Amino acid sequence: MANILIVDDEQSYRQLISLVFEESGHTIRTAKNGRQGIELLEEEPAEVIISDVRMPDMDGIGLLREARKIAPDVGVVLMTAFATVDTAREAFILGADDFIQKPFDVEELKLIVTKLLEKQALIDENRAFKRAQRERGSVKNIIGTSDKMQAIFQMIETVAEVQSTVLVTGESGTGKELVARAIHDLSPRSEKPFISINCGAFTETLLESELFGYVKGSFTGANSDRQGLFEASNEGTIFLDELGEMSTAMQVKLLRVLQERKVRPVGSHDEISIDSRVIAATNRDLKAMTEDGSFREDLFYRISVIPISLPPLRERREDIPELVEHFIDKFCKQTGKEIGISEKASQMLESYAWHGNVRELEHTIERAVALEREDEIQPERLPDNITNYNPTRINAEFDLPEEGVNLVSHLGNLEKTYVVEALRMSGGNQTKAAKLLQMPVRSLRHLLDKHNIRSLSAQMRSSGD
Ligand SMILES: Nc1ncnc2c1ncn2[C@@H]1O[C@H](COP(=O)(O)OP(=O)(O)OP(=O)(O)O)[C@@H](O)[C@H]1O
Ligand SMILES: [Mg+2]
């Protein structure tokens, strides 16, 4: 229910309107003139002000102007017995939400107020949503308003609360490490360390001593005890990046740690209990690797308790403009520049395939910001592969529908389409068409027979005459 302020110098109007809205359960305050109205508004906010225009001691227009300063969002309905076009226009310019002419039907006034309150509720909701989104975005520094990324945010928030092991998968540059950090930052462990290790960057023995630590004298060069990263991340999170690169022998050792929650430093007889949350990441297909034996199946199931799969950037293009803005901002701050991006360059970025995903986009913007001397990034500052990219000619991406696809027949159709198109472009000239398709004429003829379209080239020749 709303707080409504009624301002009118005529007592009968104040009473009538009060009665109407009190009946519907709103809280009502009344004032005799604009000045009093402002005093009441300063005392306590209101959602709606219903005010007369002609009053002594600050009229409705003055009230509106002052009210907007104190409470920019308050809804204001002005009423007047002399609705001249000018007052109405002035009221709207000053930002009145509505206008009603006296005498009026109370139902009409009720309707105006109801609509106003509905509009405000929507604005509030929208603001709360935006705020929540901003807060989420800023905690994690992850950009993405696409449905796919919003679903990922939800997932991050949910898994942050629990202790389960998480496996983050996705192509290179999709933000796997960012997600791992976000999970840690939002978890009850956020005050404890987040330790990241690239499993692909170490030999097997080195990785073992990195992860589990070692005791003095356990191998040449081990001049003192050294704590492993599992122990260092105790009560915090350990991020095992590039897990797919881990040797099978190390996989066995890792599996043991996950099962027993204990590590044994190299050369030690004693085990140390650890409580680290494990988040792993890989851009390889671990499931497929279990089939050829390069990844242990038992470890796979242990590690992928909660899988999070990051979509490639080309499957969420709607995120590109915001990412571009984010990175321009970032690199402008770093370089002290102040630039934007031209419409054309921006379009190119939005349609590019981004096989290197967000990282490739980030590097592209970094380079463009560094090179640009104008106040907007021009297409010339983008690499050739982006400016020359033409998504309309050959579609580089395919959506595999959920129900699957008959690949053989699909490819057959595709083949036929290209052959027909090549014949059309070459006016039925088979030699030219074969050239366009970069194949010997003999192969083209074979395709014409295969698709039963040998007569087509003759037809195209004659229609071209
Ligand atoms: N949604 C995003 N919003 C903002 N920055 C992002 C986003 N996704 C990725 N980035 C940035 O892109 C770069 C690559 O991200 P990250 O290192 O997390 O990718 P990755 O998936 O771990 O890649 P790789 O498999 O190559 O290690 C980082 O600089 C990261 O900050
Ligand atoms: Mg990474």
Count of distinct structural domains:
4
Main β-sheet, in a few words?
A: 5 strands, parallel
Low-confidence stretches: none
* Helical coverage, percent range: 40-55%
Overall radius of gyration:
34 Å
Distance between the termini: 78 Å
Shape: flat
Structural class: alpha/beta
Q: Beta-strand level of the residues, as a percent range? A: 5-15%
The mean pLDDT is 88
Q: How many separate helices?
A: 20
Total DSSP E strands: 16
What layout of secondary structure does this protein have?
Elements: E1 3-7, H1 11-23, E2 27-31, H2 34-43, E3 48-52, H3 60-70, E4 75-80, H4 85-93, E5 98-101, H5 106-140, H6 147-161, E6 166-169, H7 176-186, E7 194-198, H8 204-212, E8 213-214, E9 226-227, H9 229-232, E10 237-241, H10 248-260, E11 262-263, E12 272-273, E13 277-282, H11 286-291, H12 297-303, E14 306-309, H13 320-335, E15 340-341, H14 343-351, H15 357-371, E16 376-377, H16 384-387, H17 407-425, H18 430-436, H19 441-450, H20 454-464
Describe the structure.
By secondary structure, this protein is of the alpha/beta class. It has four domains: 120 residues, Response regulator (Rossmann fold); 163 residues, P-loop containing nucleotide triphosphate hydrolases (Rossmann fold, 3-Layer(aba) Sandwich); 74 residues, Helicase, Ruva Protein, domain 3 (Orthogonal Bundle), CATH 1.10.8.60; 58 residues, Arc Repressor Mutant, subunit A (Orthogonal Bundle). It contains 20 helices and 16 strands. A five-stranded parallel β-sheet has the order 2-1-3-4-5, sandwiched between helices. It has a five-stranded parallel β-sheet with strand order 7-10-13-6-14. Strands 8-9 form a two-stranded antiparallel sheet. Helix 17 packs across helix 18. It starts with a strand and ends with a helix. Bound molecules: adenosine-5'-triphosphate and magnesium ion. Adenosine-5'-triphosphate binds next to helix 7, helix 13 and helix 15.
